Amino acid sequence: MKWSTYLVDFKTYLRLERGLSDNTIDNYEYDIKRLISFLNDNQNSVSPITIKKEIVQQFIYKISKDLSPRTQARIISGLRNFFDYLVFENYRETNPVDLIESPRLGRKLPDTLSVEDIDNIISAIDLSYEFRGINLGHRNKAILESLYSCGLRVSELTDLKISDLYFDEGFIKVSGKGNKERFVPIGKATQNLITIWLDIRSNINISTESKDILFLNYKGNKLTRAMVFTIIKKLVNKIGLKKTVSPHTFRHSFATHLLENGADLRAIQMMLGHESITTTEIYTHIDKSHLNKVINTFHPRKQKTL
What we know:
By secondary structure, the chain is mainly alpha-helical. The strands form 2 sheets. It has a 3-stranded antiparallel beta sheet. Strands 1-2 form a two-stranded antiparallel sheet. Helix content is 55%, strand content 5%. The N and C termini lie far apart (76 Å). The longest helix is centred in the first third of the chain and has 20 residues, at 22-41. Forms a cyclic heterotetrameric complex composed of two molecules of XerC and two molecules of XerD.
């Protein structure tokens, strides 16, 4: 069989057996195709069944010149999972990536915005903005408030359905990574913004497949992740904010601000949809710097020279 055949089988396994999201599966596929491209460039016709550790090492060495350690580690992890699958299916006996070490990674703290930054970005939205007769200003405000108020991933936001809104109970149902569902509280202010958008949305000619999708473009189709990035980038440029801001920055800010104001780490884990508490614990590193700032500002001994 060709690489492509094994890759199709692997993707089916990831989707059906492991329940991974399309975005995660796409990343696996992209990393494996990097290896295939390397083999083609070097006119190496080795198959997934016969490839040796040495060839994989040559590939890793090549990409190490151009990619960050974090990206290298992700690619190595993706390849390891692919060959683990081939071993599991008895296509080969050993995994050629098993003895290849990933680069050591420092723990990267997520970028965050201050409450003032977020208020300034959202305040910069022109609520009168229309395109093709559809008011998109109110939609954009509802989008950013939902990202920040509920700590959503951008894919969770674009996948959000009207049937996922439980405003009477004060929750929304979110489909996260691996199609795992969780309920996240949603405040009245954000509910009101979404309600305004729903009224505007009712005037759009909506495509059949997007009838239940909450956030749409003017054509009545599901909003893309790229469009959410674009909305945020334009607003950041508009207010002259010298920071790199993405939809995920709002999610990080959500968690950080909760922790700074005394929220329980386990509750934050549940709202973010982290499978492991250790993933959420990265925010305690940010909180420590906040606490240090509080001590230096307010503790009497820090203001007194002994």
